[in-house]
Amino acid sequence: MAKISSIDMYYNRTISKDLSSLLEENGQLRWLFDFVKKREDLDFLIGKNNSKEWISVYRGLTRIISITLKNNSTIYIDGAETYKNIIPALYGSKRIDDNFQNDIENLISQIKKNDKFVRYYDKKKEGYYQNEISRIYGICGNPDDDFVIVDKEVVIGYSSQVVKDKVFGNIQQEYKKLQSQISTVNPLRYGKDLEKKSIGNELDFLALDKEGNILLIELKHGTNTSGIYLSPLQIGMYADIHNKFKEELGDAVFEMLEQKQKIGLINPNWKKPNSIKNLIPVLVISDYNYPAREPNSRYDTKSKFDEILQLTRKQLGSNFLNNLRTLNYTTKNGLSNW
Fold it and tell me: What is the DSSP letter of 15?
């Protein structure tokens, strides 16, 4: 097979003007924008792939509705079958000028009563903080914020499954192999059978800072100790993939930023940098509680994180994740060094 080039990979989630204009000022779905912005438990995700484009409303990790445009007077609202069974009136074809706010509120009230769904937001785990951080640096952002979140649940696309296997598949296997090797170094400390543990395939956030750096942000909850100390492998994988696509990624980020600022999903007065500089991997740990035990005990997540990072550098070189930023996040104090 020929060498993989940037044309074999794609990423740009800007949606058509016909769809985006529905959320803009005076758009027929502007009421939905205002409704989501007022509710701290909701957030938007707009995007597209090779087959469709959408406007989605999320509550934590739960996508409660996804809107596609059928024609100039009709939209289609989709969602998980479970949600359709709860509030069937919310889903299906609707006129663009319909107001379905009451149905959304009814669905959310039913979700909050169901133990099956509360783990995605109400238990204040990763989904809760993903929602909160996305809003703070997105729809509720300020002009002087250090960075803005341009996208979440980020996935690079590929021209074919063959290309995906060669690019993403090979990189992922390299890191899974490293994960397995780390397991043998100290199974008691790092865990057994790590080759069976998933590394993941969606970057949590893609952000842009004032200096023009693209931030590849992975979010972990403070209670996910193994996820935190094994995160250098996952973050390294994302960094390798996105670095293969750096130039085109920058163009897409600027286009997405411009569209989101026009809608209001990013503060319109946040000043766009002149150019893209570097890709910077970032680990954000939400609500991390430092252990009361001695720092060097086998229970100390921070020590194990540092050890995994050094073990990986021995295998991949001293420059591995040499610009990694690690941050802690709490609702009260915001972002701080971990």
Answer: P
Q: What is the pLDDT of residue 6?
A: 53
What letter does residue 332 receive in the DSSP assignment?
Answer: T
Q: What is the pLDDT of residue 288?
A: 86
The pLDDT score that the predictor gives to residue 60 is 94
- CA-based nearest residue to 139, from 67, 57, 16: 57
**The domain containing residue 52 runs over which residues?**
11-59+62-119
| Domain annotation covers residue 93 | yes
Q: 13 near 47, Cβ under 8 Å?
A: yes
- 161 and 86 part of one domain: no
Instruction: Output the pLDDT for position 308.
Output: 95
| pLDDT value, residue 299 | 60
Low-confidence ranges of the chain (pLDDT < 50): 1-4, 294
- Which pLDDT value is given to residue 296? 54
- 313, part of any domain: yes
Closest CA to 139 of 128, 148, 130: 148
Task: Identify whether residues 42 and 158 lie together within a single domain.
Answer: no
Instruction: List alpha helices for the chain, DSSP H.
Output: 17-20, 30-38, 81-86, 101-112, 115-118, 126-136, 161-164, 170-185, 187-190, 225-229, 231-243, 246-263, 301-316
Of 47, 69, 70, nearest to 57 (Cα)?
47
Cβ atoms 64, 75 nearer than 8 A? no
What local confidence, expressed as pLDDT, does residue 298 receive? 52
pTM over 0.85: yes
Could you tell me if 271 and 209 are in contact, meaning their C-beta atoms sit under 8 angstroms apart? no
Read off the tokens for 284: 């954000």
What pLDDT is recorded for position 1? 39
DSSP string over 107-150: HHHHHHT-HHHHTTTTT-SHHHHHHHHHHHTTTT--TT-SEEEE
Number of folded domains that form the chain: 2
3-state secondary structure of 297: coil
